[in-house]
What we know:
This protein is mainly α and about 90 residues long.
Amino acid sequence: MDDHDERRAAAFERLQNRRSFVGHVAVYVVVNTMLVVVWAASGAGYFWPIWPIVGWGVGLALNAWSIYGRKPITEEDIRKEAERDLP
């Protein structure tokens, strides 16, 4: 596999991850909206939907960070890491 193919494969994977993330956000919003509606329809006492909203939100935030916040591993990173292993 040449450099062009590797870059194309990496770009394709990034695009797939971004699309998947958008779907994840949509499901998060729909499900948590339904939970809030159930909470409101059942008397609107203790706001229990906060627990799945926060818990799932943490996972969603970590997913967003891994897609948008992390820089890709470069050849320079690999070289530096390999040099650290030398005695």
